[in-house]
Amino acid sequence: MKLAPLSLMTIGGGLSIVGDLQRLSVEHGWFTVEGFNEIFALSRVAPGPATLIVTLIGWHVAGVAGAIAASLAIFLPSSVLTYSVARLWHAHRSAIWTRAVAIGLAPIAAGLIISSTAALLQHAVGQYIAWLVAILTAVLSSRTRSGPIPLLAIGAAVFIVLYRFFF
Fold first, then answer.
1. How far is CA 122 from its chain centroid?
2. Parts of the chain with a pLDDT under 70
3. Where are the transmembrane segments (predicted)?
4. Is the domain of 68 the same as that of 102?
């Protein structure tokens, strides 16, 4: 399955591979860009990890069997890797390399998440407004102790007002 290698790239969480999921989904004709953005939004409303979008993609492509296969493809490799690394990490938790790896992976995770966000925003409704709201939300998130719900509400309100005004 084309999704299994992405499992090992989920450094920083499932959002880090959304850009690649979108590219694969469009390249294979599973979704249009707009269709992918819709299913991404649906997956984010549902509780659970960001990688649950893969289950929805599998379901769309091949029904229940596709959902099961896609879920195994995205969760199994990274789970085995995480378990193995956790055992190694625990055995060597005072080693200097553990700190170096943690510090080194942080910018990689941030970069993957930013690139996925950019891929989604390229085709978002109200493109430049969506970019503006995303940037403002990121700034607010980094400068305040506000939780995600108020930020989502503020972002949605700003988007709706600007979208109505400019479109």
1. 15
2. 1
3. 52-76, 96-114, 120-140, 147-166
4. yes
